[in-house]
Amino acid sequence: MHRVLLSVLLSAVFVVAGSSAAFALQSGGVEIGDLETGSVVGQPFQKLDVDIELNAMEIGGKKVWYPPVSILSLVSSATGGRAGRPVLMKVTNTMKEAHGFSLSAASAQTGPTTMEINLELAPGETKYIGIPISDLTYVTANSLLSYKCQLHSAHLGGQLLVLTK
Question: In terms of CATH, what superfamily is 29-163?
Fold first, then answer.
């Protein structure tokens, strides 16, 4: 009886260990929240530096995410040795109406490793997005992410270039 119980328990441990390794290779560790209560991979947003700041605003009569191009350098010499510290993005809606924010890898990329972030920001609202380095570099095979307003197709988005080498 003890051998049967032991083998069932050992099998359960192997299944759990095997499944957790699979999740480590897929994106999905993205966390969205506010500065005071948010955290990603156990690190509070308050203790992280903001790497990218994006603002929804109106420029020349067009509603845009500004800046239209952002560059995130993960090269160790450029960041002073990141040591696996997650990326923290700050997105703010400065307009008088709700605005969407969508961040995704290339639209041609499909499967369980595709990163897709969608949120809606109320007027004047700010949200923070924490992305683990492993998830970010795993989904950016072409080093390019696109951001836009998923609520309004006429609004102008932008691109995030991720430098890893």
Answer: Cupredoxins -  blue copper proteins (2.60.40.420)
